[in-house]
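Step 1: inspect the first sequence and its tokens.
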Amino acid sequence: MLQPSRKRDGMPSPTSSVSRQAWLMLTLATVGFAVNFWAWALLSPLGPRFKDSLELNSFQQSLLVAVPVVVGSLGRIPVGALTDRFGGRVMFPLVSAATVVPVLYLGLFGHSSLAELLAGGFFLGIGGTAFAVGVPFVSAWFPPERRGLAIGIFGAGMGGTAISALTTVKLVDAHGMANPFLITATVLAAYAVTAALVLRDAPGRTVPTEPLARRLAATLKLGITWQASALYAVAFGGYVAFSVYLPTYLKTGYGLTQADAANRMAGFVLLAVAMRPVGGWLSDRIGPVRVLTGALAVVLAGALVQAFAPSLAPVGTLAFLAMAAALGAGSGAVFALVALLAPANKVGSVTGIVGAAGGLGGFLPPLVMGSLYGTYGSYAIGLVLLAVVAAAALAFTGTGVRRALTRRAPAALTH
């Protein structure tokens, strides 16, 4: 891994520079992340359609959109560790090519029953593991004081879900169910070939020699693994939960059409995506703890406001947009924290576990929201639970995480 020179107090040298090749690798990684997330999110905009055509109940619909999330999340653990070992040059093309298979299956064959959709959605989760490839790959190309911004820019690739939200329903309406899946598979295949030809791992990248199981066990002993996992489960988990369930929430709770609900979800996603590099950039300058504190406070307030089911114009819309911005910035801040505190040869392993926690954080809320709505006919309790979780994460950030940074990287709190 490229490392900047350091002063005696441990702070990075201000003379650290970033090469043009590093920016090119960051761009290619971000594109790959976006393409894989586009595929990962294909089922979410179609959830209401499948609910009507297959006569699914609220829980079944929630399960349909949640399965790719949980598989993609848990898959990040081995994929992150494998990226530490083999590098992004190998893993990005491999993950992208593997995701083509379930995308084609769902578009051509697997959309006529819940069982077929769940089977296809299970393997569609492979696309969600691309995140655990990109973070260690990008981190190795940038010096520590620039990683917050770099990983934040890479994280903007989660905007691939917005591509799905904006195009999937329209393409199905215009050209049939197979069309968006065939387009996505073509783009994935093209990226896999491009990545195999162009991507390069950073010179001097630290390659671990320990067996996979031993590396994962060592990673689980790191404090940063658990601290970042808890925070990412709230920040990114909240983003994922809204990105997969918001169309259903808006259609059921506010009576919007499927297309209108998908467009509004795309707006939520785009704002969160835009704020992720901002969160990383701010973390490089004022520290990740301050960014996380502000972000979680906004999520807490927004969830409490929305629990009262205000009208969408303007209160509900403002509440959701505020939460989108906060969740995006908070997600960027979490990985600025990882870049500061994770050992160089374990960034992929830490990323895999933290990314899994974030995805799992997005897996449960849709199931909870669907169950609560089916039981009580209201989403209020689910939103209050989100506010409680955000409050707990806010308290943890101001205590345990702040102490950890004070001990390990005091500059993160002051520069």
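Step 2: inspect the second sequence and its tokens, then contrast the two.
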Amino acid sequence: MGWKEAAEPVLTRMPTVTRPDGHVPFKKKLGWTAGILVLYFFLTNITLLGIHPQGGEDLFGQFRTILAGEHGSLMQVGIGPIVTASIVLQLLGGANLLGLDTNDPRDQVLYQGLQKLLVIVMTALTALPMVFAGGFLPPADVLQLGSLTLVGTQIQTLMFIQIFIGGILILYMDEVVSKWGVGSGVGLFIIAGVSQLLVSGFLSMSDEGFFYSWYQILFTNEVTAGSWLSREGFNTLFIADGGGQLLALATTLLIFGIVVYAESVRVEIPLSHARVKGARGRFPVKLIYASVLPMILVRAVQANIQFMGQILNSQWATMPTWLGEYSDGQVVGGFFYYTAPIYSPNDWMWWTGQVPAGIEVWQIFLRISVDLTFMVIGGAIFAIFWVETTNMGPEATAKQIQNSGMQIPGFRQNAGVVEKVMERYIPQVTVIGGALVGLLAVWANMLGTIGAVDGTGLLLAVSITYKLYEEIAEEQLMEMHPMMRQMFGRE
């Protein structure tokens, strides 16, 4: 008996969101999407029952904009378990260890059930160390629930149950959006978190707010006109926390412009309908063909490495210095330092005095090199995995074109012929696009963005929003022309 036969009774009984029987009207899709978004914001504002008022340290830290959620709330784990489960499945599928054919309806059910099971396991494995290891989610001294008094481990167990339930809710909220709404829940939650930080970064009435900072600079004589060209004035206007943030503003605007431009760069393969004379179309192979979503997987690997380092540091009385050195909760040396991403200009601009004392320039450049290598190569590898597992590869694309009744003018109407044409473009563009997105993500982090948004998070948010815009436009077109839904298999 193979693993599929043994696991089938469990995997086929995993709770699932039922797919709609027919076409879902566009307004109804928007309603479901908006409803899930409101529910997400609501859940991020529900504080864990039993947590200490001080809240503790966020283990996800700078990765929060990518992994979504909110520290100390029901959404504590964010989309982390979903992303980690996707990484595991992609690696297993890429090595052909699962033995599942996603074109077979039975294997599709098993794959989806396995994915849900993995998410549930990852949710528990992520929540356990957060609650029971170190002071990441410190419990209150005493919790009074009516006549019941909870202390210590009892409170921690209650917190674990709440986080676990929150993780399961995110899983099914994502599934509702994917089947009944527009886009995906994972993308929606990332957009929500990044947008919130951007608005706060511009409008906050604190030293971190962009407009408030410029009010302070212009009307409190913090930097006089004569000192703007000095080293201190330049640092205040462009780089320093609470300063003019001109570098962060320029990076934010450039990311918006570059991503929108990159999304529009494409190779268009002409298509014509085999039976309907005059019916023509184009299949676009975009520069960022695999989208920027594989970047979530790359950053999630880095997040899990840092997550492990934080836990080892909290549990290991004397961690070997070659493995990691920590100061005030921040890694300043060892393996975990060199594998940590560059989060902001303060991590590498040693001349500003923000880099922790004792870190040499060669260490900073080594860390940048590791981050750049990890993101560029990892981006290309995960882009390939993403294309193959989401039926965007040459073979799957050729079958889709064949099934829609379209063909490439000048070539025989044969899936194998179309596949060979697609192989000229898709693999190369996938690798180039994945590496380019990785390079952009590191560059954005190094220069910083408004609202302390992680550069990768901003990159993801802009690209996902652009994709969402395209999908909304396509849905509106299908709504106005119902025959197109049948032609493209959307009915």
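Step 3: confirm your contrast with the notes below.
The mean pLDDT is 83. The beta strands are 143-145, 148-150, 266-273, 280-286, 325-327, 330-333, 406-407.
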